[in-house]
Every structure is written in C-alpha cells, then in structure tokens.
Write a structure and sequence with these properties.
CATH class of the largest domain in chain A: Alpha Beta
Helix content of chain A: 25-40%
Number of strands of chain B: 4
Number of helices of chain B: 26
Distance between the termini of chain A: 22 Å
Strand order of the largest sheet of chain B: 1-2
Order of helices and strands of chain B: HHHHHHHHHHHHEEHHHHHEHHHHHHHHHE
Order of helices and strands of chain A: HHEEEHEHHEEHHHHHEHEEEEEEHEE
Largest interface: A-B, 56 and 69 residues
Strand content of chain A: 15-25%
Largest sheet of chain A: 9 strands, mixed
CATH architecture of the largest domain in chain A: 3-Layer(aba) Sandwich
Structural class of chain A: alpha/beta
Number of strands of chain A: 15
Distance between the termini of chain B: 35 Å
Oligomer: heterodimer
Radius of gyration of chain B: 25 Å
Shape of chain A: globular
Number of helices of chain A: 12
Number of domains of chain A: 2
Chain lengths: 419, 538
C-alpha cells in the first residue's frame, strides 16, 4: 500500500494542535473535517486467550507484592509500562500497544464470559447477539472476497457467531493452518464431481414441481453455487502459510497459534474482515505460574511478530488487533498454586486501527482488594473497536422475530484510545 | 477412525449380520411386527372431535382469504415429517418396508402411534424441551447436571407423565440436583458470586417457557409494546427469592429478593406477585412461594401454560409456530382460533402431551402437500400449504446418519454403531453450526453447511468410505438398477423417484459392475443428500 494512504493523520494532529492555539474556530472546523476523512480500519484480528489468562502474569504485573507470587516484571518500549516476565518481544512493541488494565465483567463463567467478551452483550435467552466479527462483516462492504470473511482458527468451544444477523455470519472454523482445510476440497475426480452436479439438477427439478417460488426462497441452490465458487477460489491460498519465507514463519513461532497468526495476516490481505485465533490452556486453577510461563512462550513471539509484520506491510493502521480472554484471575493464589476466575479487574491488549498505543489505561489494586481505578466495561471496548472501523456504535439493527432494535454496541468509545 | 485389530473379527460379524438383515429389505417384504403395529393403532385412535374443529377453523380462514388449500401429501411424506419432528431423523428403509406392508391410508397413523412409544422420540423431545427449560449452556460446574436432567425429562415423556406435573416439579422441587433432577431448572442459574440461583434468570425463563411471555426486557424497563411492567418482572422473580443451594441441594428459607436499581442501589425486599390473574394464586399462608407459583402456573383456569405449550409443539411438528415468536404470545388481541381450541383441549385433558401431538399430527394442515402449483408465500402464511422449513442441525445430522444405513439406528443398534452415531452426530452438529436456543429460524443455510455436506469427511464416510455404508450394501444387494435407484430414494428422501429421475439414474448405473457400480451408487447418495429436499422439511 502506498505511504500516501494516511496523510490526514499528521495533518489532523497538526490542526488539532493549532485548534488549541491561534486558529481556534477555523482550525477546529478543519480538524473535524480531517477526522471524518481519516481512513478507518477494515479488519479485526482477535488473539483469543481461551480460559481466562491471569493479568498478573501477562499485562499487569505487580512485582514484589504479595499477590504477585514470584512473578517479576520487565520494562518495555513504552515508558513506565511493565509487562510480566516472558513477554520480551511484546515489550519491544509496546509503543504500538495499549493495555486496558481495569477491565470489569459481570460474568465469571467461561461460556457466559466468552459470550459477553465476543458480543459485547450479556447472554440473553430471547436473542442471540452477533460477535464483533459478525457485526464487522455485516456492516462493512463485501468487496471481492469469495472466501468466508469471518474466520476462526483453532476455534475453541465458542467461536464467534452470527447471532440474530444469521448463521451466514458465523465464523468459518479451521484448524492448524499446517493441516488441510476442512470440507473445502473435494476428494473425488473432477469428472465425477461434474456428473454429480448435473445429477443434482435432475433432483432439484423434481422438488421444484409445485414449489417453484418457495423452493427458490430457500436459497439452497444459490448457497451450493457460492460454496462451489469458494472451493475454486485463489484466495484459499491465504490459508497456506507454508508459502511464507522460513524466517517469517520462525518469527511467528512454529506453533499452531503462531501459524494461525501468520495465516490471519494473509487472510486480512485478501479482504477477510475478522480472524480469531484461539490459544487455549489459560484456566490455571492449579499451578498458575508454571502454566503462564509456558503459555508466554507461544503468545509472545506470535503477538509481537504479528504487530511487526502488520506494521512492515502498512496494514497495522487498518487492522485492529485485540488480545485477551473472557476474564482474569484472582489476585489471591489458592492452596494449589492456582488462581481462580476473576472478572473484577483484568487486562486486555489492543493495537492498530489508528488507536493510540504506548499507554496503559486504568490500574488494579496492588493488594488485590480495592476496585480498579477507571473501571472499563467490555461494552466500551466494543464501542471503541467499532469506532476504529468507522462504525457508529449506537446504530441499531433489528433482531428478526421480535423486531427489537439492538445497538451495535451498548458502550461508549474509550476516548484515551481514539487518537 | 482407527479400530484395534482384535475388534475386527466382531466387526466382520456385524457386517455379515447386517447383510442378512438388510438383504431382505431391498426388496419389499412383509414382517410379522407390521400386524402388531396396526392393532395398536386401532387402540389409539386419534380424538376426532377436536381434530375436526381445528380443521374447520382453518377451512373458515381459507374461505375468508379466498385460498384453495393444497391437496393431501403422499403418505410417505407425512411419515418423513413425523420422524423428523419427533425423532429428529428420517425413517429407515427397514421401517418404510414395514409400513408399506400396511394398507394405504393407515400408514401415517400407525407410524405416529409407534413413534410416540419409541425411546428415540422421548430422547429427542426431551432434548428439545431442555433447550427451552435450561438453555444450551454448560451451566455451573457440578451443580448443574444436564445429562441427568434430560434423562429425567425423557423418562417422563416416555411414561406420558402429564405436562403440568412436570412443570410443577420444575418450578417447585427441592433437594439435590442428582436425585431430584428437576431442580437443575434452578441450579443452572446459580451465580458464582452469591452461590444462589438467580431470581431474575428464573423469572425470565418461567415467563417464556410456561407463560409465553418475554418479560426479560421488563427486567430493566417497562416493555415497549406489551403491557408488561418492571414491577411485574420483579414480582415474579421474588418467588425464587427464598431459594438457596447447599450440600443438601435446593431449599427455601426467607425471601430476601432485593434487586438493584439502575444506579446499583439496592431496593427493599420485593414481595412475590404474579403478573396476571392474581385471584388464582394460592394464599401465602398455604405453602412456600415456589409451590404457590407452581400452583398458579398449572391451574387449568390460567390459560397461559396450555397456550405456550401448544404453540411450541405446533412449531416442533410444522417447523413454524402458530404465533411468533414461539414464546411471546400477544397479551391482548387475537390468537389463532386453532391455538385457543388446542390449548383448551390440552388443559381439559390433563395436559396429555401424547394426545396433543397426536391431535396436531392428525390435522388436515399437518397432512397437506407442500407442493401446489397455485401456492405462494401467502398460502404458506395461512397454512393452506405445508410450509417448507429448514431442518435443524441435529435433524440434518440424524438424517445423514440414517441415510447411511439401511436398518434403523436406535437403542436396538449394536453399541458400537450407537457410539459411532452418537459421537459422529455431535461432531456434525458442531461443524454444521448449532442453532442454540434459536429454535425456529427460517432463514437459509450457510456455505460451510454446504461444504460440509458436499466434501465433509463425516458425510463421505456415511455414503462411501466408512464401515458398511448403505451405498455399498445396495450395490451388492439390489437385484437390478431400477431397484437400486428406488431403494436409494427411499433411504435418503423417503420417496420413490419420478419417472424422469428413475430414467436418468438407471442410465447412470447402466452396465456398471464391481467398484465402478459402488462409486455410481455412492454418487447417487451424494446427489440426494445434497438436494434442497434433503435439508428442508416439506
């Protein structure tokens, strides 16, 4: 992408500066105009830490306190911000990353917490909310993408769903990018496949007798045709990370999660709107510190390499990268050396999409007792991501059947993040 | 799937056994059990009076709207509907052959009668009810036992326990969730912090499942277009305000339901109050609050339970409820006359689920053809033609697995087959996309679903590569091409091919032998399984 794609960012900060000084009325006007012409982000990459990572052993260490256990902290490229030991590569990228350290959630159960984090709404049995990836696919134009625009790599038990927007917005689930893509490749000879499809016309004709319009209303044949288009799409190559140079693969780490992150970058390059890559294993009720030390070895290189790679390709400004799980873990260490579920003050990392990095928002109590300072809701994170994508969080969609209007997000953008 | 060597011998034995059993089915045959089935059907005649009245109500509607209804569906199409609605699968070739031994016109009734006594049906209906009652979440670890709950429901349905008795247990039972499985209705809502069932979630669940009212949004504010007020929601929640959970299970003490207002301020204790018909609520001196609520819900003078249950069972059988959404019946205004009639009949006949299912499945509407040259979407809206509805993922899974076999898959199958079917179906539903609690979603299918059906390993194993797929049995056992094609249609689509289809596929099979013939029959299975007709109810 040409460097000139984002000239207004600089112009805008200049004008904003001017607005505070001598050019007040006109300057503000021009600054506002510049704001509206800034090119919004187009994709989301969600690094989903399934099980609920401990904030203390990742993004919010409290070294030398009782709640830390033995966890130490390291300095990062952002002044005054520390990460837990084990995140050295990410530390070098901290200029690009913002940490929200005061996340609060009302759900302390894995399934309900995941639902809230992915959709921005608490579970409600009368309506299934779409995940942010589905919203993104629904609200933004399709472009020339033939493959699914919402993808879940190494999907856990609750991948992103289309909810009331429809199952066509569900995340397409794939495994380790090293393996074969499920269901996409036909294993039979081309001539046999051709004969089968011709035969299908014969059976469809019989069903359409007396049901012509109503059979068409099922969109079944159309969906078959679109699936066929996808099976032959060149864009499927985006899943194939083996064509990347060995150094790049090594940078991300030769792990399923590392390969997933690399595939995510390739996928957004062909127009995929949202990729979630799951790294499981964070539910450390027992042996918390050992578990987190080993998880860091997989997360740190992949996350850092993704940020470097996106920046190198000038994709970071148009991609929001989120990293977190359904909740954090208790400041208190239990008798088994574990930490339990803790929705009352945990961390989330966010980068790219024109959001302001190099900062930590909110803070948790070093003794693990008091409520966090500047509590931030999951709803507000959703509103922020939507704003970065150029979407108005208060826009309403109508849930079918009930006709109930539902906002894209019930939260308000976090002003410290909007640049 | 990898099978240990020592098991291969017994697998071969099953294969041989299966061949003997299915060998007869490829040609029409009569089995002794068929006459037994018909004798039972006589004993369980459908209550004709209510069916006639419901039919007349629809006839009046069609006349007033100037619609001519479609003709009667072919009997096998009705048999397929019954199997899908009540067992979540399609009938096996074995079952079709057995039914075809009966005189025409009696098969659908006999089938309904047989299915209603089948464990497969109780299991399937229990799972469908469970989604309404406890949702699809895993729920709190240890304190919620979904399997136990579903088994309890299934046993109750198989025994045809009156529905109001089941509902009474759900609302009011106490004790441990293991030996009083109904209490899982409460334990699924246990809050991790308070370690108590959540009154708000229970109120919302009770309102939707038993009253046909979506009171949920009245939790935070008054309902925008129904007469429900926030106070009514809190009053209903307060019935659960005394419930606790400890090592002895669910038990009740003093009501201390104190909701918080929008600013997080705790309000004074709310007294239990029902949202309508307060005169039917047993006095507070009589019993504990959950028992009082249960008494009010199941009082036959309170029409809500019967109406919402009829609406739901209608949707289970026809793919679409009489009033939408299925759990939010209008508080005022017109209900479909058929809904009111069926609800009155249900309440006045002891909330007999089996009778209700039999009545709905015997109505003219249930037995209308889904094909009619003149029928458009207007006919469908007025039930003047059988609606074409998308099958649920588990119905498609059930149908795919049954289509891959000639004999019936069920509790009688070998444990190994049952294991394969059980785990395979779950995998299939996961990949196909579970619709969760969204029970009746009419919208189109998805690309990943089509990919799974066209290329997926699970489907491929059923039709070609797995252990003893139906296609290779047919290739081996069908005496000629015509019978092979006919049998494949019966196995997959529960109908015979049209002349055009028969001619076309006989041409495809012509002069093929050995592996080539197996491939072509597998191709035929693939084609039928990938048709609109297979993935939709009609």
């Amino acid at each position: 992408m040409p460097r000139t794609a984002f000239p207004t960012l600089d112009r805008r900060s200049f004008l904003a500066l001017a607005a505070t000084g001598w050019l007040t009325p006109i300057g503000r006007l021009l600054a506002d105009q510049a704001e509206s012409t800034r090119r919004p982000a187009q994709s989301i990459i969600l690094l989903w830490l399934d099980g609920g990572p401990s904030q203390l052993e990742t993004f919010d260490p409290h070294p030398d306190t009782k709640i830390a256990g033995s966890t130490r902290a390291i300095h990062t490229a952002a002044r005054g911000i520390q990460l837990a030991e084990g995140y050295q590569q990410l530390a070098d990228q901290m200029g690009r990353v913002a940490l929200i350290r005061s996340m609060v959630s009302k759900e302390g159960d894995h399934e309900r917490g995941t639902y809230l984090m992915k959709t921005g709404y608490r579970p409600d049995p009368t309506v299934e909310h779409p995940s942010i990836g589905a919203i993104c696919c629904h609200e933004l134009p399709v472009g020339s993408t033939d493959i699914p625009r919402h993808i879940s790599i190494l999907s856990g038990r609750w991948p992103g769903r289309g909810g009331y927007l429809g199952a066509e917005y569900d995340a397409f689930q794939v495994g380790d990018p090293r393996g074969e893509l499920p269901d996409v490749v036909s294993t039979i000879a081309a001539d046999r496949q051709k004969a089968r499809l011709a035969d299908l016309d014969v059976v469809e004709r019989a069903f359409e007798r007396g049901r012509l319009g109503r059979a068409a209303a099922t969109h079944h044949r159309e969906t078959v045709a679109r699936a066929r288009t996808m099976m032959t799409s060149e864009q499927l190559r985006a899943f194939d990370v083996s064509s990347e140079p060995a150094e790049v693969r090594a940078e991300y780490g030769e792990t399923p999660f590392g390969r997933g992150c690399l595939a995510a970058r390739r996928l957004i390059e062909v127009g995929v709107r949202c990729v979630e890559i799951t790294l499981g294993g964070w539910d450390s009720h027992v042996n918390n510190h050992a578990i987190h030390a080993s998880q860091a070895k997989e997360l740190d290189p992949a996350f850092a390499a993704l940020l470097r790679d996106l920046a190198r390709r000038e994709l970071l400004d148009r991609t929001v990268v989120l990293c977190g799980g359904e909740f954090g873990r208790t400041p208190r260490i239990n008798p088994l050396g574990g930490r339990d579920h803790w929705p009352g003050g945990f961390s989330l990392a966010i980068a790219g999409g024109g959001l302001r990095g190099g900062q930590a928002i909110g803070e948790t109590d070093p003794e693990g007792i008091k409520e966090p300072v500047r509590p931030t809701t999951i709803e507000d994170v959703h509103a922020t991501v939507l704003s970065a994508l150029g979407l108005d969080p208060s826009r309403e969609n109508t849930a079918p059947a009930t006709g109930r209007p539902i906002k894209l997000s019930a939260g308000r953008p976090i002003r410290e993040l909007l640049g | 799937m990898r099978i240990p060597i020592r098991d291969l011998g017994f697998l071969a034995a099953i294969a041989a056994g299966a061949a003997v059993v299915v060998g007869g089915m490829v040609r029409p045959m009569i089995r002794a059990s068929a006459s037994a089935t018909s004798a039972r059907a006589e004993a369980n005649r459908c209550p004709e009076d209510i069916v006639r009245r419901v039919d007349a109500a629809f006839r009046r509607q069609w006349t007033s709207e100037g619609l001519a209804p479609a003709g009667r569906a072919p009997e096998l199409a009705i048999v397929r509907r019954i199997s899908l609605a009540l067992c979540g699968t399609i009938p096996s070739l074995e079952e079709i052959r057995r039914l075809e031994a009966l005189p025409e016109g009696r098969r659908a009734d006999a089938w309904l009668d047989e299915i209603l006594r089948d464990r497969r049906s109780a299991d399937y209906l229990a799972e469908r009810f469970a989604r309404v009652l406890v949702g699809t979440e895993d729920g709190p670890f240890l304190k919620f036992r979904r399997r136990r709950f579903v088994t309890w429901l299934s046993d109750a349905i198989l025994a045809n326990r009156p529905y109001h008795a089941i509902v009474r247990d759900l609302i009011a039972d106490r004790g441990l969730w293991t030996d009083h499985p109904a209490t899982n209705f409460l334990t699924v809502t246990i809050d991790e912090k308070t370690e108590r069932p959540t009154p708000e979630r229970l109120a919302a669940r009770t309102a939707r499942a038993f009253l046909g009212v979506r009171l949920d949004c009245a939790q935070c504010h008054d309902h925008p277009f129904q007469p429900w007020k926030q106070g009514q929601f809190r009053g209903l929640a307060a019935f659960f305000g005394a419930s606790h959970c400890d090592l002895r299970g669910i038990r009740d003490t003093e009501n201390d339901y104190r909701p918080t207002d929008r600013k997080g301020k705790e309000l004074p204790t709310i007294e239990p109050e029902v949202p309508f018909l307060p005169e039917l609520l047993p006095p507070s001196t009589a019993s504990e609050s959950r028992t009082r609520l249960a008494g009010w819900v199941v009082d036959p003078r309170n029409p809500a339970l019967a109406r919402v249950t009829v609406n739901r069972l209608w949707a289970l059988l026809l793919g679409r409820p009489l009033a939408e959404p299925v759990d939010d019946l209008p508080a005022s205004g017109e209900l479909h006359p058929a809904l009111t009639m069926l609800a009155d009949d249900f309440a006045s006949h002891g909330y007999d689920l089996r009778r209700l299912i039999r009545v709905i499945a015997s109505t003219e509407v249930f037995r209308l053809d889904s094909a009619d040259d003149a029928a458009g979407l207007g006919h469908e809206a007025a039930w003047a033609v059988f609606p074409i509805c998308r099958l649920r993922p588990e119905q498609v899974a059930g149908a795919v697995f049954q289509a891959g076999a000639l004999s019936t898959l069920g509790p009688e199958s070998h444990w190994f087959t049952r294991f394969l079917v059980f785990s395979g179906r779950n995998d299939f539903v996961h990949r196909y996309g579970d619709t969760g609690e969204d029970e009746f979603d009419a919208r189109a299918g998805t690309i990943p679903q089509r990919l799974l059906m066209m290329n997926g390993k699970i489907v491929r194993e059923r039709i070609e590569d797995g252990p003893f797929p139906a296609s290779s049995s047919l290739a081996r056992l069908a005496p000629d091409d015509r019978q092979a094609v006919e049998a494949a249609y019966l196995v997959v689509l529960t109908r015979r091919p049209t002349d055009e289809e028969l001619g076309h596929f006989i041409g495809r099979l012509a002069s093929s032998t050995g592996d080539e013939r197996k491939h072509r029959i597998a191709d035929l299975f693939w084609t039928l399984i990938n048709s609109t007709e297979f993935s939709w109810n009609h």
